[in-house]
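Hey, resending since the last one bounced:
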Amino acid sequence: MKSEKYKLLRRGIIYDVVGMVTMTIPVIGPFLDILWAPFAAKKMSDMYKGTEGKIASVLVFLEELLPFTDVIPTFTLMWLYTFVWKKQPTPQVIEVRANE
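The structure tokens again:
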């Protein structure tokens, strides 16, 4: 599980960098964002399942289409939300004793 978690982080950072690089290309960059936005949204929904993944895919789609928002590391923020900030219930440990 731990290595899968960090594989998601590495992939997310790569996708964030690709999304940011398009901003540095004059004239062609905004057109590349139009192509990149649906691809990034699909990758986000593949990486994170459920409702949270769907919401994140919509957010990354909009972030890639809107001007001057390419600097937001959406994939990395989603990873942080999923694995660092999200409050998950602590599993209860039940002690079982044999009858003495």
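The chain has a mean pLDDT of 86.

Sorry for the duplicate.
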